[in-house]
TrEMBL record:
InterPro entries listed in its UniProt record: AGPR, AGPR_AS, AGPR_dimerisation_dom, AGPR_type-1, NAD(P)-bd_dom_sf, Semialdehyde_DH_NAD-bd
Catalytic center residues: C164
Record key words, sorted: Amino-acid biosynthesis, Arginine biosynthesis, NADP, Oxidoreductase
Gene Ontology biological process terms in this record: L-arginine biosynthetic process
Protein name: Semialdehyde dehydrogenase NAD-binding domain-containing protein
Pathway linked to the protein: Amino-acid biosynthesis; L-arginine biosynthesis; N(2)-acetyl-L-ornithine from L-glutamate: step 3/4
CDD domains: AGPR_1_C, AGPR_1_N
Domain Semialdehyde dehydrogenase NAD-binding: residue ranges: 12-156
Keyword presence, Ribonucleoprotein: no
Signal sequence segment: none
Gene Ontology molecular-function annotations: N-acetyl-gamma-glutamyl-phosphate reductase activity; NAD binding; NADP+ binding
Length: 286
């Protein structure tokens, strides 16, 4: 399909941070989508390159050349996916034209409490005037765990896409908490992730020789996803929930497993938990 035909599709998409792992995933998901066409792509170090040269498996896709965000023209864009590092994202989002719908994959708009963001992410909001701008944008953000807040997501201007570990933990626990099947205390979460979760940027700790044939825990007691997990579970419970969460890095590229230990409410059986999860995520086949 030619770019000109793509422009006729209903929703014109800008992809910010297209040259990273999540950018490539968005391209894959949108490639044959009937309503979306990609009209703008940005990169940082790889600005000026084609997507096919960065990700050879996408070479057959007819995509615009990646440009730097500062050179991006949003006049032919209706919605953007932000696939940028957290911290960087706030500054870029606050400068985007108001007509754009935004899906942000970073962590910048997930936490309602800005003080909590600064504490767990170990950085103030980066632009000097952002303290003024951030609360306004933050109020517009909907936490985009679709299964839990589908209607809010539909109408949002800014969707804060949940983190990987928090997704794997909230999807099973939120329905059980709402149905009062589990206790709010002593929730212990043991999660395992593949290495692509750390992004494509080169880091010593993610070298093959560091990762292969081993497993290690990291961020013990202080991983930045703790407040996000607690925010979602506390919302479901309508009271404060604290969790013990330990992530592990596995010698694999993709994938995630979270094993969650809970106390069942009095009289509840394991079968009750399964029934509730089946009911909550029932797929109606036509
Ligand atoms: N990897 C995963 O499984 C998941 C990641 N996320 C989150 O999504 C976001 C993107 O992650 P991921 O794709 O893995 O990251 P990558 O490191 O793979 O890609 C980051 C992208 O942002 C660009 N970029 C980096 N710095 C800047 C900057 N200062 N200004 C403009 N563009 C910049 C990079 O350009 P270039 O390549 O040219 O340097 C690249 O396109 C992160 O916030 C991450 O936390 C969310 C869910 C899952
Ligand atoms: C293996 C690894 O490093 N994982 C990342 C989380 C990846 C993820 O998808 O979460 P975000 O959307 O918040 O980036 C980490 O532990 O920080």
């Amino acid at each position: 399909m030619q770019s000109s035909e793509k422009n006729k599709k209903e929703v014109r998409i800008g992809l910010l941070g297209a040259s990273g792992y999540t950018g490539a995933e968005i391209v894959r998901l949108l490639a044959n989508h009937p309503y979306f066409g990609i009209t703008l792509m940005t990169a940082d170090r790889k600005a000026g390159q084609s997507m096919g040269s960065v990700f050879p498996h996408l070479i057959t896709q007819d995509l615009p050349t990646m440009v730097s965000v500062k050179d991006a023209d949003f006049s032919s864009v209706d919605a953007v996916f932000c696939c940028l590092p957290h911290g960087t994202t706030q500054e870029i989002i606050k400068g985007l034209p108001r007509h754009l719908k935004i899906v942000d994959l970073s962590a910048d708009f997930r936490l309602r409490d800005i003080a909590e963001y600064e504490e767990w992410y170990g950085q103030p909001h980066s632009a000097s005037d952002l303290q003024l701008v951030f609360p306004i944008i933050q109020k517009e953000a909907v936490y985009g765990l679709t299964e839990i807040s589908r209607e809010d997501v539909k109408n949002a201007r800014l969707v804060a896409n949940p983190g990987c570990y928090p997704t794997s933990i909230q999807l099973p626990l939120v329905p059980l908490i709402k149905a009062k099947l589990i206790e709010h205390r002593n929730i212990i979460i043991d999660s395992k992730s593949g290495v692509s979760g750390a992004g494509r940027g080169a880091k010593e700790a993610n070298l093959y020789s560091e990762i292969a044939e081993g497993i290690y825990s990291y961020g013990v007691t202080k991983h930045r996803h703790v407040p996000e997990i607690e925010q979602g579970l506390s919302d479901a419970a309508q009271s404060k929930i604290n969790v013990s969460f330990t992530p592990h890095l596995m010698p694999m590229i993709r994938g995630m497993q979270s094993t969650i230990y809970i106390e069942m409410s009095q009289g509840v059986t394991v079968e009750d938990l399964y029934q509730q999860l089946r009911k909550s995520y029932e797929v109606h086949l036509i």
